[in-house]
Design goal:
- By secondary structure, the chain is of the alpha/beta class.
- Strands 3-4-5-6 form a 4-stranded parallel beta sheet, with helices on one face. A two-stranded antiparallel ribbon has the order 1-2.
- Strand 1 and strand 2 form a beta hairpin.
- The protein is globular and about 40 Å long.
- The termini are far apart.
- The N terminus and C terminus are likely disordered.
Length: 220
């Protein structure tokens, strides 16, 4: 699905590929499959400034690696290029119907953001409560085993890697290591932020995305 978005004077598009697994499908290489579907079905002519968050960041990584002709710039928000095995157990719990909505929100937002109960928090609460369990579990298992770290150094475009100080999955250390594997990248840590805090502040998000015409700083 392709959706137009506007943020201030910037315009962009959100591409949401279908991730409901077909019968008999395994979770191996889910991110690569979705990246290929995005490349094949996108209605927009590249190259693009590709922005990916969390699982979407892993799809963005695969797209930048497989189709460098389509990606002129990459922004990675709270994602990682190495496995997170603990999500295997979380996937099993989701499939069994054990979903802790409030617990998920506490991992994604700060106490202040939850108390303010803004539109992004309300949207996240509804999305978790109504999510398709099979798709969610499939994505969790894909994150648990995802590892493109040996291929990450092949990314040729400029990249900005943005970590949140209190993210316990895409933690600062893992994201800094990923940044060091991407030859032309800068690394930013958002102090006081949680996994989804950047979406609760549109001004901060616009600042994170920056001006696509200005390349990121190179590491010394």
């Amino acid at each position: 699905m392709l959706t137009d978005i506007a943020m201030g004077r910037r315009r962009g598009h959100v591409i949401s590929p279908e991730i409901t697994p077909p019968p008999g499908y395994t979770d191996a290489d889910l991110q690569a499959r979705l990246a290929a579907e995005v490349a094949d079905s996108a209605e927009l002519q590249g190259p693009w400034h590709v922005v990916g968050h969390s699982f979407g960041g892993q799809v963005a990584l695969e797209l930048a690696i497989a189709r460098p002709d389509l990606v002129s710039r990459l922004t990675l928000l709270c994602t990682r290029d190495t496995p997170f095995p603990a999500f295997d157990a979380v996937a099993a719990a989701v499939e069994a119907g054990s979903v802790d909505v409030d617990g998920a929100l506490r991992r994604w937002f700060s106490t202040g953001e939850l108390q303010a109960d803004g539109p992004v928090v309300r949207y996240a609460r509804e999305a978790v409560a109504t999510a398709d369990r099979a798709s969610w579990a499939s994505a969790l298992r894909a994150i648990a085993g995802f590892d493109c770290s040996q291929r990450t150094p092949s990314i040729a475009c400029p990249a900005t890697v943005v970590a949140a100080e209190h993210d316990t999955v895409s933690d600062v250390g893992s994201m800094e290591a990923m940044h060091r594997r991407i030859p032309d990248s800068e690394f930013v840590v958002r102090a006081g932020a949680w996994h989804m805090s950047v979406f609760d502040d549109p001004v901060a998000l616009a600042q994170v995305l920056g001006d696509p015409a200005v390349p990121p700083k190179r590491r010394p």
